[in-house]
Amino acid sequence: xxxxxxxxxxxxxxxxxxxxxxxxxxxxxxxxxxxxxxxxxxxxxxxxxxxxxxxxxxxxxxxxxxxxxxxxxxxxxxxxxxxxxxxxxxxxxxxxxxxxxxxxxxxxxxxxxxxxxxxxxxxxxxxxxxxxxxxxxxxxxxxxxxxxxxxxxxxxxxxxxxxxxxxxxxxxxxxxxxxxxxxxxxxxxxxxxxxxxxxxxxxxxxxxxxxxxxxxxxxxxxxxxxxxxxxxxxxxxxxxxxxxxxxxxxxxxxxxxxxxxxx
Length: 263
What we know:
Blueprint (H helix, E strand, L loop, with lengths): L4 H11 L7 H4 L3 H20 L3 H24 L5 H15 L21 H15 L16 H14 L7 H16 L4 H21 L4 H22 L9 H17 L1
Helix pairs in contact: 1-4, 3-4, 7-9, 8-9, 10-11
């Protein structure tokens, strides 16, 4: 037997049943589930980055369950249900892809030889998206404040760049980063270090963006690299690491770097 989406909806309803459901699931709210949702998103990302496609199926299921959970709570409050969620996202994507669905219906399709221009597609997407909601006071309002800080910096800069507020090339972005690093080096108080350190990070995000690199992806890559090298240090040590000098630990670190370059 292969379970379908309706079976998952039934399971969720049973879990939230006030009489016979699961005590943990019953007491959850929109807000209490958020940390679990974020965790599931990052587990999906990790599975993809590790090319762990067998585990990806399971992680996507866990993420889907989060959507079903929110929809179940909303249904209990007579706000909306999973069918409404599916309807709205399908309707929105049909509307935003006129180059694929010219009549705005699933039955319509473009001619195979009618290849749309990617720049035109992106411009249409932005225009359609902008028409769907009231005009915000600032383009900054279009970037959710709840985003992780690196991602929000990245998206704020992309929005500003579309308005012409951007360096014409990477040279300007690199010069700005060097300027901010020099200013950081001159600071000593926690308050000024916080301020100038933030400017350095923001400028680095801008430089990476100009090179077409997602800063969050770059940070995850750096974390993975650090973990690999630090694990090598741990594997070489016969005593607790605190019993070694920094030079000894650094020797093993450099050894790990050399092994990576030789692969």
